[in-house]
Amino acid sequence: MALFKRFESAIDNGIGRRKLGYLLIALVILFFLWFPNDASQSNYAKTVFISGFFYAILSSSWALLAGIAGQFSFGHMAFMGIGAYVAGLIARDGISFALLGISVTPESISALGSIIVGTVFAGLVGLIIGWLLLRLRAAYLALFTIAFSELFRIMMLTEYDYTGGSNGLSLRPLLEIADVNFARQVEYYLMFGLLIVCLLALYWVANSPIGLFLRAMREDEDAASALGVNVVRYKILVFVFTSMIVGFAGAVFYSDVGSERIIPEQLEILQMSLIIAYAVIGGMESLIGAAAGAFISRYLLEAMRQVVITLPFGLTTADGSDAFVWDTGFWRFALFGVVMVFTLRYMRNGLLYPIITWFSGRDIAMKETVAIRESDDEFAARLEQDDE
Amino acid sequence: MNDSFVQWLLLAGPLWAAIGLYFLPRMSPKRKRDAAISESDLQAAGVVGGFALGPLGIGLFYWEPRLIRRITLAAGITIAVFISSQVLVRVNDPNLPSALWLILAGPLWAGIASYFIPRRYREVEAIDTNALTAAALGGFAIGPLIIGLMWKRTPRISREWMIALGSLGAWQIYTLFALHNVSNPCVAAPYHITYLTQQTANGVVIGSIYSLMAVGLTLIYSVQGVVSFAHGQLYMVGGYFSFYFLQYAGEFLSNLTNSEISVNPIWGIPVAAIIVFVMGAIFERIFLKPMHEGLIERVSEYAILITFGFGFFLEYTTLAIAGPFPQRTDRFIEIRRFTLDRIHFSDEFFFGPIHIIGDRAFAMFVGIALIFALLYFLQRSWTGRALRATSQDRQAAAVTGINPTNMNTLSFAMGSMLAAMSGAALIPIFNWVPWVGAEMVGRSYVIVVLGGLGSVPGALVGGVIVGIVEALGAGCHPDPSRGAAYKEAFPLVIFALVLLLKPTGLFGREQH
């Protein structure tokens, strides 16, 4: 502890915490940029990373919606699915509006074009759902979005003539590279770039005045509205924005970048609960916390598929092998649930919160404020006066 | 008439209506004053004029606002109805069944009505509590007629009104359906009445079982103000406790007596109830109690997440222990079919032409008996009265010597217990897998919201309604395999509509 204190003061007198934090972020980015060039890493590890990036996007955009704007939507995966399914359907069947003279044939649309159509469509549905949700709060909102996402999943599952049912729908491949190893590398960089872009966009919104309005609405909608925040506009805006982000990420991920096809199973409430768990563990009110939480949890869950303990000193187990091997396929999720519940109860802001506050230097300010409040009688008296 | 022209007509009406709705109320204030016309009349004129006469109508009303009188609006509506009916009749696209257009007309009018009628009610300062619901239902059922009527008279809307309009709407759907799909078993004479009654009876039976679970949810909500998102998993866990208890008790007794003994599944119900009661109480003490003590910010979000996390944990722990294999216990009633002196005995009951599977009927009786026991407990015992008092006013209850903290724990434990009991009552009927709870819990959300969150009788009625909707929806869908797949979807549609139109449900108190 004393060592940590000395380290802390050395940092404070030297480079400063914030700069150290930026340095750390730069190092992490460098690591991710270097990682696929490491020849010893298999394609499997890269695939795990790619899906980690994808879930980081989903989780951090959910953190903006639920943690910062306070809109507890369980329909996030459904918006992702809308993006992917619409992109896939338009690339396969095309669309035509005879009336407006617009006709899109499958031949005339590129993979990127179909992804953009999917994104726009996800945004439109987000607009409608956001508008419908205006009058609902907290538990009612959560229930409505559950109903919406289940309806969407059941429709995708049942209308198999169009969507392929439980076999799923193949999207048009975004990258057509013959060499498997090289393709994996490009996919990796694509997804990582997408994560960075999405995080920057989310941060831009969260740190703009809109982010302040959203936080005000989360704390007290009526008070925010009385102070002149256009609650209707920003609620709908945040819905459209996050659904477009996840719609885009979904359409890209399933365009043979991370996965070959989108299946309705991806839209189940269980998948949604994973996104929520990642965001909660990483920190719901911090975008980078949610993203890091998703990536780390994803990685740990993948690593915990099988627990192997090699016995030392030449000991053997009852059946003669030199290691205990447990298949922890389902137990890892049970453990994950325990971690999630206890995080919620005892570390509401997520497990990464202390680290993030330490680097941002916010904990100094917090400690000082609390100390002043507790010690300063005059301050306390003034507070009491204000209350009266 | 060629296709593109029809499409154009279909689009043109709503398009010009939207333009009229936007522009007409934005004329200069002076003209508005001169014509002495209200805002909502202008909006209505924009929609009607735009729909019926297109740019001509909008221009006319803009040029001479004094023309906007009730009689003009009525004439406009008549023309609009005439045009739209003409279009509907002429649509002859083989890919697009004409009934679809008729069905689409319902939501269209419902949308128009639910936009205008509440505004009109507020304008004339009439009581508008149910105006939105009635307008949507009425617009769906009788279209422009009800809109005109409600616009003019702004009647006070009672529950009877809504029931009448709702049934009319349902009847219309049925008629359209019958016209569209003649050979369907639901509409093909002479057996359709039997078929429908049979489906309804099935729905009532299964619906009463659903109710038991929903009653638990509503009990928790009424006392704590918390929607338990772990309810489905508690239901699933209850089934598994019953399953394992029956298995081990059967083995134990068989070893004891050296004979093959199987325990009737009814004994699993109290066992599951006790275990889950304790589980619920412990969870409440550790994770929900701090919420009521003011230790946690933003309580409603915390409640959603913590119960959700609990459900997540339960589901995966069960999956790890029990595995993903379907399990099922013995049946409640072990009667094989046999015939004695020309009387048939079987495990099905027959009431006239309707037959009900014995096990389901048994589970229904268990469910109804438990609900009535709960109602008796809530109404007559001291603890039950204390629970109700806490749900009505926490502080007043505390003043009279009721400990609200204990009541919170009791309500959550009892609610979870009811879920577990319905699980234990249903494991002899359904195949049990760890994700059975996630499927089931959707239904109980529908039930509690439909009946009104916090109302026990509402949950009972809601359960039966959901059961009937599911059975009829699945039974009458033109494509049987799709009908079965959409079984869960039918109640969800009702759910979304109730949430949007009347979030307090049928029997609910005001949202707090």
Describe the structure.
The complex is a heterodimer of chains A (388) and B (512). With 388 residues, chain A is mainly α. Among the domains of chain A are: 1-40; 45-265, no CATH class. Helix content of chain A is 70%, strand content 5%. Chain A contains 17 helices and six strands. Chain A has helices at 2-13, 17-34, 43-68, 76-93, 111-132, 138-158, 160-163, 180-207, 209-219, 221-226, 231-257, 269-282, 287-303, 331-346, 353-360, 362-375, 377-387; strands spanning 95-97, 102-104, 169-170, 261-262, 306-310, 323-327. Chain A has a two-stranded antiparallel ribbon. Chain A has a two-stranded antiparallel sheet with strand order 3-4. A two-stranded antiparallel sheet of chain A has the order 5-6. In chain A, helix 3 (43-68) packs across helix 12 (269-282), helix 4 packs parallel to helix 6 (138-158) and helix 12 (269-282) crosses helix 14 (331-346). Chain A is globular. Chain B is mainly alpha-helical and 512 residues long. Chain B folds into two domains: 3-180, no CATH class; 192-327 and 353-501, Orthogonal Bundle (ABC transporter involved in vitamin B12 uptake, BtuC), CATH 1.10.3470. In chain B, strands 1-2 form a two-stranded antiparallel ribbon. A two-stranded antiparallel ribbon of chain B has the order 3-4. In chain B, helix 10 runs parallel beside helix 14. The longest helix of chain B has 33 residues, at 192-224. Chains A and B meet through helix 6, helix 12 and helix 14 of A and helix 1, helix 12, helix 13, helix 18 and helix 21 of B.
